[in-house]
Structures are given as C-alpha cells and as structure tokens.
Amino acid sequence: xxxxxxxxxxxxxxxxxxxxxxxxxxxxxxxxxxxxxxxxxxxxxxxxxxxxxxxxxxxxxxxxxxxxxxxxxxxxxxxxxxxxxxxxxxxxxxxxxxxxxxxxxxxxxxxxxxxxxxxxxxxxxxxxxxxxxxxxxxxxxxxxxxxxxxxxxxxxxxxxxxxxxxxxxxxxxxx
Length: 175
Fold this sequence. Notes:
CATH topology: Hypothetical Protein Ta1238, Chain: A
Distance between the termini: 64 Å
Order of helices and strands: EEHHHEHHE
Strand order of the largest sheet: 1-2
Radius of gyration: 18 Å
C-alpha cells in the first residue's frame, strides 16, 4: 500500500485504535495543530544553537506520542509526569540564565522568532486539546505537556536573545 489510500476522500480519517472520524473533528483539529507544531520545530532546529537541537528532536518524538494518545481517545498514553518534569527542569535552567523581568518583544533574532512561532502554535494546540479534555474527557496529560512545552519554547527563545545581546524588553503601557 502506498501513501495514497483514498480512504479520506469522503472527509473521514482513521483513528489510532480503529474507527473513523470527520477530518474536522476536535481530535483531528488538535492532532493537526500538533503536527503543524512538529513541522515548525523541524524548521527551528536549523536555526537554534546545537545544544537545543537535541531538545527539539526529543520533543518532536514526544509529540508523535501525544498525537497517538489523542487519536486513541486516551487509551494510549506514553507522555506523562516524567516528560513534563523534564520540560520543567529545562524551563528552570533557562529561567536562571535569563532572569526575565520585563515583557519581551518577540523576534529579536531569526532563531528566537522561529521558536516564538513554535510557541504560539503550541498554545493553539493546547487550546484544541483543552476542548478534548473539557468536552470529551481525555487528553489531560497532553494538555499539561503542551502547556509546559510552550513555556519552554518561550524561555529557549529568550536565552538565544540574551546570549546574542538582542533581547528587547518593553515596559507596561499602563496609563
């Protein structure tokens, strides 16, 4: 069997554990957004420092596991506490380096801009998964993971900007 199966020609797609759902279903919306994030991470790897490439590749693998969890309606769960704690340790490491005290204007370098795009796509994926959690009762571990992942991507972008002396903070515009 080749890549073209024609099984989706009627607007349905197969789930990991069998069965078919509409291509516009909340499950496929969430998985499509995670897949988009995965592709943007693939692009970002070509711009970030070498130490971050390995992190992004590990995240890409974990995103496949998240998509399997969602496509199985929560019957398959491989990403959990251990993976979230790994993200949290990385966030803490980068927070110590940056010591952020202001709002940041994204995109001061190409690498940080690529990570900020990943972060915002990750937040969109998080919103899509929140719908699954609240309305369908599965995806909780994916939701927590995506939340931490967005935080990590934010901090990685700031680290790059700080190291290159290009972080641009903005003051609050309260009147």
